[in-house]
Amino acid sequence: MAQIKNIQEMTVDELNRELERGGKFVVFQYCFSIIVMTFKRGSDVYFIRANESTLKYSIGYTLLTFVFGWWGIPWGPIYTIGSLYINLTGGKDVTKEVLNSLNREQE
Question: Could you state, in order of their start, the residue ranges of all structural domains in the chain?
């Protein structure tokens, strides 16, 4: 499994408490275009603590997309709008998938 950002030095108990309080695992999207080719990718997984803003984690991906995403025809504008929407609404919540993956690794 890929490294999860923002959980350094957290114990399993601390992580579980944060999840109970509303913490979540999220992925941000970004895209960039080169004339006729557009690439849409996801970021690493980030753990967002309860009541923590995602802005400091998503800003780089959002700016990259805003500047370099539009230029591919026809998918650049489509992927750019979708990626910006996901990032500006807090990222894609992948908590279920991460927890399922962690549970499988423990078996």
Answer: 4-106
Pairing of β 37-42 and β 92-93:
unpaired
Residue from 47, 37, 65 nearest 9 by CA? 47
Query: CA 57, CA 31: separation in Å to the nearest integer?
Result: 16
Which 3 state secondary structure label does DSSP give 88?
helix
Closest C-alpha to 62, from 39, 35, 81: 81
Residue type at 70? Answer: W
Give the pTM. 0.88
Distance CA 55, CA 15 (A): 21
Q: What is the rounded CA–CA span in Å between residue 27 and residue 36?
A: 26
Q: What is the mean pLDDT of each run of 10 residues along the chain (107 residues)?
A: 81 91 96 93 95 95 97 94 97 94 75
Nearest to 83 by CA among 58, 56, 48: 58
